[in-house]
């Protein structure tokens, strides 16, 4: 099969890495890709939001399967546009992608399906939202969410009631563009967070190992949110992983089908778990980033026929892949200053000093005119180690992280530590 991966982050490099291991993968392309995907196949200079450009490239290169990484092209209808041209694509239709692209849509589905979630209200004016905050009172601080896609930045967890009012004003003033035209005010939940990803083809659900993402920039979850500073898998605090999928993914996919929307692709549930009680904070309609960089290395077998079956809406060959039962730790190396301002174009040293058993997934990287691998984004690399135990995987990951350097590089030192102390 000839495969085109849409996107250019660490998730897409991890997908390309896994899919090129398939005996049926003849060629792999990435649009736009990064220095990591360039090493495995060919990068196409097409932006991931250029729907026409992707459709044309897929036709020209006789692509058998398009695998869509990021949420924006899904929400913009890339999979539907490819379907018109009879090109199979792994990922949901625009209608099904609403599970991520509208927080309120997701809440309505969970409500109807009886799936535990953070309760909330939808507001279409700042005035009504302010009034609701006053009714809640200063001791009942909620979470504020732009209803639409806001590049991962549309969630505000306010420190006090003044912060909450200010956030409402910002959202309705257009801080998140059209994503903030409607705002959800949600109950604040506490507990431990985990990510539950499953590959879905209609009613057929194939669970992947659970994982935990570290979103804040600094150790001990201090500082601003980022796109993800590291991941470990699997978490030790989730009772029975199978129950996650039967009590969340199955009813949600069933409810969507009952409403006339078939889900095909990756369904990601962001969970808050408190004393055994599980609630959904959000859904994503795509592989998590950076979760994918820790989860795919835990899968034995061939992922390509599974994604291809999902793309066609067929029953998936579950036996094609299995969970290795091992543990993984993935540490992000980022540019100094991220998630604020940072410089790019810094040569990266030490990539060839990494153990063969360790996977280094590229995110913001590029090749310069002299053939050097340089930084090209905030999150630059994800260093993933797999071992029999989480402690071992963590040791190997950090031992290798320190061999890779570039001017201003930064990483968190506490990924997976909470499971080991
Ligand atoms: P998101 O951008 O949707 O991944 O959300 C960012 C972070 O906001 C989540 O990882 C949680 O830590 C936090 N969050 C979102 N919703 C809630 C909620 N209802 N209660 C508490 N924290 C939340
Ligand atoms: N790691 C969270 C996400 O992919 O949205």
What does this molecule look like?
The protein starts with a strand and ends in a 20-residue tail after the last helix. Among the domains are: 2-93, 3-Layer(aba) Sandwich (Rossmann fold), CATH 3.40.50; 120-186, ATP-grasp fold, A domain (Dna Ligase, domain 1, 2-Layer Sandwich). The chain has helices at 10-19, 35-38, 51-60, 71-75, 78-84, 98-101, 103-113, 126-136, 161-172, 241-258, 291-295, 304-312, 390-401; strands spanning 2-7, 27-32, 42-43, 65-68, 89-90, 120-123, 143-146, 155-156, 183-186, 192-201, 204-207, 212-218, 222-233, 264-274, 277-284, 299-301, 321-323, 327-334, 359-362, 365-367, 373-375, 379-387. It is of the alpha+beta class and 421 residues long. A hairpin with a 3-residue loop joins strand 12 (212-218) and strand 13. The radius of gyration is 21 Å and the shape is globular. Adenosine monophosphate is lined by residues 118, 143, 152, 155, 157, 186-189, 193, 215, 270, 281-282.
Quick structural summary:
The protein is built from 13 helices and 22 strands. It has helices at 10-19, 35-38, 51-60, 71-75, 78-84, 98-101, 103-113, 126-136, 161-172, 241-258, 291-295, 304-312, 390-401; strands spanning 2-7, 27-32, 42-43, 65-68, 89-90, 120-123, 143-146, 155-156, 183-186, 192-201, 204-207, 212-218, 222-233, 264-274, 277-284, 299-301, 321-323, 327-334, 359-362, 365-367, 373-375, 379-387. A hairpin with a 5-residue loop joins strand 20 and strand 21 (373-375).
């Amino acid at each position: 099969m000839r495969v085109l991966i849409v996107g250019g982050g660490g998730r897409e490099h991890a997908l390309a890495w896994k899919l090129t291991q398939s005996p049926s993968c003849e060629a792999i392309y990435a649009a736009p890709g990064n220095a990591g995907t360039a090493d495995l196949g060919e990068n196409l200079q097409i932006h991931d939001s250029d729907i026409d450009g992707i459709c044309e490239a897929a036709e020209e290169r006789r692509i058998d399967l398009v695998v869509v990484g990021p949420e924006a092209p899904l929400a913009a209808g890339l999979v539907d546009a490819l379907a018109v041209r009879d090109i199979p694509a792994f990922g949901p239709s625009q209608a099904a992608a609403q599970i991520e692209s509208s927080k309120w849509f997701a809440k309505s589905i969970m409500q109807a399906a009886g799936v535990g979630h953070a309760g909330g209200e939808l507001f279409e004016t700042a005035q009504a939202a302010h009034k609701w905050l006053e009714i809640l009172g200063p001791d009942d601080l909620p979470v504020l969410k732009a209803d639409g896609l806001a590049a991962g930045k549309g969630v505000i967890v306010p420190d006090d009631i003044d912060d909450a009012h200010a956030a409402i004003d910002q959202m309705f003033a257009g801080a998140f563009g059209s994503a903030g035209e409607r705002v959800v005010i949600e109950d604040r939940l506490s507990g431990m967070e985990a990510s539950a990803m499953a590959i879905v083809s209609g009613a057929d659900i194939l669970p992947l190992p659970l994982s935990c993402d570290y979103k804040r920039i600094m150790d001990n979850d201090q500082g601003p949110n980022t796109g993800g500073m590291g991941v470990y898998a699997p978490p030790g605090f989730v009772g029975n992983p199978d129950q996650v999928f039967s009590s969340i993914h199955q009813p949600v996919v069933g409810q969507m089908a009952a409403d006339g929307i078939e889900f095909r692709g990756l369904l990601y549930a962001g969970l808050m778990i408190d004393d055994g009680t599980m609630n959904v904070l959000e859904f994503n309609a795509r592989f998590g980033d950076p979760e994918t960089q820790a989860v795919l290395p835990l899968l034995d077998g061939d992922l390509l026929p599974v994604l291809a079956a999902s793309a066609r809406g067929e029953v998936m060959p579950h036996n094609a892949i299995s969970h290795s039962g091992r543990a993984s730790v993935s540490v992000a190396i980022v540019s100094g200053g991220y998630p604020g301002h940072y410089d790019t174009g810094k040569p990266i040293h030490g990539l060839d000093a990494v153990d063969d058993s360790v996977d280094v997934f590229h995110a913001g990287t590029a090749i310069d005119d002299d053939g050097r691998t340089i930084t090209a984004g905030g999150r630059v690399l994800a260093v993933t180690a797999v071992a029999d135990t989480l402690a071992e995987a963590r040791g190997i990951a950090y031992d290798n992280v320190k061999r890779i350097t570039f001017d201003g590089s930064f990483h968190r030192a506490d990924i997976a530590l909470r499971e080991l102390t």
